[in-house]
Amino acid sequence: MKGDKITKTNLKPRSSSVLLLALLLLTACSGSTLYSDYVAFPAEGWQAYDGKEFATTLPNDSYDVNIFVRHGGTYQYSNLWLFVDHISPDNVVTTDTVNIVLADAYGNWIGRGWGNSHQVEVNIAHKLPLDSGTHVFKINQAMREHKLGGINNIGLSIEKCR
Question: What is the reported pTM?
Fold first, then answer.
C-alpha cells in the first residue's frame, strides 16, 4: 500500500476519483459541524506506530465524517494511505483503509493552499448512523514508512446531517 512517488511518468488520469469526489461534495451534509480537531506532527515525520485519536460524544443521529490532511511541498508521494479505526460507544471496532489523493495526474498538488502548504479534505463516511455516546476515531499512516515526512497535520471533523 505504499504511495506512488510523484513523477510525471507514472501518474495516470484519475477521472473516476475526481468524479467521485465531486459527487461526494454535492451530496455532503449541509448541517452544522459538531466536532473538529487537528493534531500536528514533529518535523522528523509521522511515526508508523503513532496513531492519532479523536474522541467526541454525540447524540443518536446520522453524520458525515471528514479527514483533513495538511502537507508541505516536500511530501514525496501523490497520495496518503490511512488506517481509520472507529470505536463505538459499545466498544465495537470498525477498521477502514482510506486512500487520500494529494496530487493530480500531472503532479500538481490538489486542495487548498499556497506555496509549500496544502490542505485536502476527504469525506470518509456519508450519512453514517451513530448511536449516542462517545465515539473514538483513530488514524494511523499506512504508507509502510517508519517515519513519513512531509505530513504536517491530520484532522477530523464530524457534521450532523439534516
Answer: 0.80
